[in-house]
Structure formats: C-alpha cells, structure tokens
Amino acid sequence: MAMCVEDRISSFPEPILCHILSFLPIKEAVRTSILSTKWRYLFASISTIKFEGYSMSGLTDSNTDNFKNFVDRLLKSPDQVRLECFRLSHEICSWNDGDHDFDISGWICAALCRGVKEIDLQISYLEDILPAVLFTCRSLVTLKLDAIGHKYKFPSDVHLGNLKTLHFKDSFFGDSIHRLISNCHVLEDLAFIECDFYNISKINIQIPSLKRLVLDFDIGESRDLNYVVVINAPNLVYFQYTDGVAQGYTLSTMKSLEKAHITICGCDTIDSQTIATHLIQGICNVRSLRLTINEEIFRISRLPIFHNLIEFEFLDRGFSGREIWLMEFLHRVPNLKTLNLNLPVVAGTQWKALKIPSCLSFHLKEIEISSFNTHMIEMVSYFLDNAMILETLIINMDALTVTQKKKARNQLLQLVKSSKKCLTIVVTL
Question: Which InterPro entries match (predicted)?
Fold first, then answer.
C-alpha cells in the first residue's frame, strides 16, 4: 500500500520559506526552484546572499558570464526584499579578469540600495571597487573588509551612524582612519587584524560605546612602530593586543573590562619596558587575562594590584628568569582562582625558597599546566604544598614519550597535597 507523504514545508508562508533558504549556500537555494511552481522564484527573495568558495566551485570559462548575469539579476531586479547580509569571498577574484569584468562595485551598490545590514567582503584587490556610498550608508550594522595590501583612504563625508561592528584585515591605514572611527557613534566591535599603519603618529580610538577591541598585528615582521596608542573606551569588555612595543600607550580606566589577550614583544631596553608597562597598567581592572611574552617585558615594581583578576593564562616563549617573574606577578593578583601555565622547560629555580603569593594560599582553586615536562616536578610540588584550597590540578603530558609519562605519573603520586579536596587529572592523549 502506497504511503502518502505530506509536504508540510511548502505550506509555510513565503517569508518563512525565504528565511529558511537564507541559511543555504546560494547554489542550493537556487536548486530549490525545481521543486514546484511555488518554489520557482523564492530564491530571488532571500535576505542573505553569500558568494563563497562553494558557490564558485563549478565555474568554468564557458559559464562565468552566465554567473555574472545571474548575480546582476538577483541583486538588481526591482521589488526585492531588504537584505540582511551580502558576502563575497576571495574566490571571486580569480574569475574577475579582463575577459569577464564582474561589476562588484555595482553589486555592492545594489545591496546598499536594498538596505543591507551586513557586508562582508573578502577580496584580494579593492582598488576602484568600493563605492564611496558604502561609507555613508545608514542601514549598515556590520562591515567586514578583508583586502590584502589595500591602502584605505576614506572620503571626507564618511558617516556610518548605525554601524556596530567594523572589522579590517590585511590592510594599510593612514590618518583618514580616524575620520571613519570618529563618525561611527554607536560602534561596539572594532578589529584590525594583520593590518599596518603608515605616516601616522597616533592610533587614536576614543569610542564610548565600544565593547570589543582587537588590535592584532603581525609581530613576526620587522616594521616601524613610530606611533603611540591612545584608547579611551570606558565600556570595553574585551581587549586583544598583539604587537611589538609602540612609542607609547595611553589607556583610560576600563572599569567594565572582563577579558584581555595581550601578546607583546620587543622590550630590549629599560625605556621600552617602561612603555610596555603602561599598557598593562591600563587594564588593571580585567577579570580574565591571557598574557604571551618572550622576555621580561613588564616591570613588576610598577605594576598595580589586579584586584579583579580571577583567571590568568601565562604563555612564555622562553626567557631567563621567567619563573621568578611569574611568581612576582602572582603577588599582584591576590584574588586569583584559575591559573593556566604554558611554559618551556622549567629548570634551575629554587622553588622552596620562593615567597608564597596570597592567592595561592587563600583563593586558587584550579591549576592547569600545558606541555608538561619532567623538569616541572619541583614546580608542581611547590603548588601542591602551598595551594591550600586547590580543587583541580590538570597536567597535560602530550609532549612526553611513553616512558617519560610513566615516570612522571609515579613522581606525581609521591607528592604531598595541602588541599585534601584536590583532584589531579593527567591528560596523555
């Protein structure tokens, strides 16, 4: 007996069906047009249009023009719904040559005319592609631009009054970047990833509404940092900074700061250490800190007390005296509850002679040691001896051989714990 299958999805109202199609890759959304007459033109009313690698995978020289015409009709036809998101990926650049000449600027303008809220462009070259109207659009809430080597120069009338998220990647900026930032009055999320600044004396970020700030530069390259960094963002919740030491730092008090990731190097003089210390002073209210350094970069004597810090992750790229520096830093975090250490070989430190930080005695509940090696037994013994209320000790032995793991486990079993509640977890995957 034949079963009758009811098509419940097709009975949904068209706005719901279009919303469902918006989650599909554009290819799959178009393919639904063969399902029935009701589905034939639904894909043209989707509110999210993304041309990513999967969308471009089937292109050949013979059908590239068809693809171009399809995108033109999809974006520029009249009576279209408002757009939520428009995205182009790097793959489209490989087909945008002299023979095909995609109208990317026109596509962006068409998306703007449809009141698009999010634009995400991952394009290798943006020369003569970005229309000036992009930077005066009132509907934009999110703008992400990834353009390898592009030098931005923003128009004088730039204004993005409703923009909340602004991300740049792989680009260069001059003074006009300040004109853009100062005219984004409700900006909450700002990121510069693998970017660089030229002919600029100050990176000036003064945005009261800002909640998330990422300044993630390439510290592996030799470049001039002839600028000072000024940040006035009293409502900042998350801050990430990856770079060498700039000429100076001025950070306003960030009373709302929850989490910070700081990766910094290049302190080869006392002056640069002092300058770098100004950076860490500005985040003294942070609750969770991830710190990556390759030398004694901050002068402990000038650091404030981090009363709010309860989570600390320390990644050391190897410098002499790092264990002493770490223990001195722990004296500045009296209320620390979670400590995560990722260190190279630890050897030569007289752990039993070190003064005990108060956080170790009264507040520390979890310690995790990544990349454990057999030279760290004395350090582990120090923590177990003095962590009075420790609840969890996690030790990752991934880097050890089978023989070393067996030896380390036997050594750990012989260590005395001051906290009777402490559970030791050994990870050997």
Answer: F-box-like_dom_sf, F-box_AtFBL13-like, F-box_dom, FBD, FBL13/AtMIF1-like, LRR_At1g61320_AtMIF1, LRR_dom_sf
